[in-house]
Amino acid sequence: MKYIGVFCAASPDLEPCYYEEAEKVGRLLGRQGHTLVYGGADCGLMECVARGVRQGGGRVLGVVPDILERKGRVSTLLDEKVPCRDLNERKAIMVSRSDVLLALPGGVGTLDEIFTVVSAHSIGYEARRVMLYNASGFWNGLMELLRGLEERRFLRSPLTEYVTEVRSLDELAAAIAG
Questions:
Q1: Secondary structure of the chain in HEC code, one letter for each residue
Q2: Distance of alpha carbon 48 from its chain centroid, rounded?
């Protein structure tokens, strides 16, 4: 069993395909017996991936900042709740509690989480890479930007040391197992 940290959107206003894909990813993680480590919100892709993990038989660990508690936005699907003060602490806890880090589609918060992990790796704090789940092509623009940084030698190491792109559930399953 691995602890899979998932960064993703909490938005309730996305195209239905994103919610469906997040739930599929969750079911895959659950069927494989993994524990989800995520932001603990009760909406958006966060809630969908948590629901999928539970449906697949996995466990759900939510790292919940105070603001979610105050707003009553904490998921009821949590097997374990880890309270924290703010988003920076949440991110640090998620990274430290996860064996694998996976980014589903998301906004600026997800980008912040991705780049925090990549930056820490690039200067030697962590030897972690982030998997970008790109089944819908959502991360194509980011991958193009990162490849451009690599081509212009703005990355200290090859991009593949920081980021793994997966385009399907089968690729994701293989990458997690590897």
A1: CCEEEEECCCCCCCCHHHHHHHHHHHHHHHHCCCEEEECCECCHHHHHHHHHHHHCCCEEEEEEEHHHHHHCCECCCCCEEEEECCHHHHHHHHHHHCCEEEECCCCHHHHHHHHHHHHHHHCCCCCCCEEEECCCCCCHHHHHHHHHHHHCCCCCCCHHHCEEEECCHHHHHHHHHC
A2: 13
For 118-163, the pLDDT digits (tens) are 999 989 888 888 999 998 999 999 999 999 999 999 998 999 999 9
- Judge residue 153's burial from the number of C-beta atoms within 10 Å of its C-beta, 0-12 exposed, 13-18 middle, 19 or more buried: exposed
pLDDT at 1: 83
Burial per residue of 79-89, b for 16 or more beta-carbon CB atoms within 10 angstroms, e otherwise: eeebbbeeeee
pTM for the structure as a whole: 0.96
What does residue 30 show for φ and ψ, rounded to 5 degrees?
Answer: -65, -45
